[in-house]
Structure formats: C-alpha cells, structure tokens
Amino acid sequence: MKSKKYHWQPEVATSIIYWSVTLMILFYSLTLALENTRPYWKSNLVLVMFFIFVYIGFLRWIFVKEDHLLVRYARFWKKEKFYYKNIQAICRLSNGIEFTYQGKEYHFLMRKKTCESFLTDLAHHFPVSILSEKSKT
Questions:
Q1: Spatial separation of the C-alpha atoms in residues 34 and 24, rounded to whole Å
Q2: pTM beyond 0.85, yes or no
Q3: Going by DSSP bridges, is the β-strand pair 87-93/131-133 parallel, antiparallel, or unpaired?
C-alpha cells in the first residue's frame, strides 16, 4: 500500500502566533523596500526569510502507513510514529482530529475535506467503535 499524506496545523493559538510572526517579517521587508528608491539588499534578505518561514509552516504532514501514522512537524528533524495498536481513541472535532495514544492526547487541525479523507483512510485500520465525534466549543 502506498502511503498517503495529509497536511495539518497545530492548535489554533500556536498557528495564529506563527503566521502572525511570519506576516510581520513580510511587512518589515516591505517597509524596508519602501524606504529606498532602488532595490535594497537588506529588504530582499528579510523577504527571503519570509519565504523560508512560509515554507517551514507548510512542512507539517501526517503520513498514513500500513501499521502506523508518521507525523512530521515544522522542525524537519522531528518525526513521530504512532502505531495503530497503541491508539485508544480517535475523535473528530469541528476543525480537525484528536486521538489518544498511550494515554496522551494529540490534536491536529485540518481542513474539512482533508479531515474527511483522512478519517476515511483510517477507517481501514480501525474498528468503528474507536472512531467517534466530539464537539468542542
């Protein structure tokens, strides 16, 4: 079976802070660019930093493998494996999923279509009793 990958984001507060800082870098670069009438190497360097932060922000993936989930974080050296046999519960939230792995809860925010296809793919590996819906306000 070929592994499928799904994009995710961390909790809402962390995502807002990360993307706000990233946009602040962009606006700082634009401010530096408007200070001069010709191309300015410092503003271009800060703009490159902005693009690096955007790229890093999109590195978060969940890979569905045959016997485990592989979660990649924005820090490219950090990977976690979640084996299916150790996952106790999977709950669908209004804005993503949450699952309990060895007594610890993990939250992943996803778009609605991504979440639906992810749960459909997971249904092949889990009994229906583990999958549930949870409404969080």
A1: 15
A2: no
A3: parallel
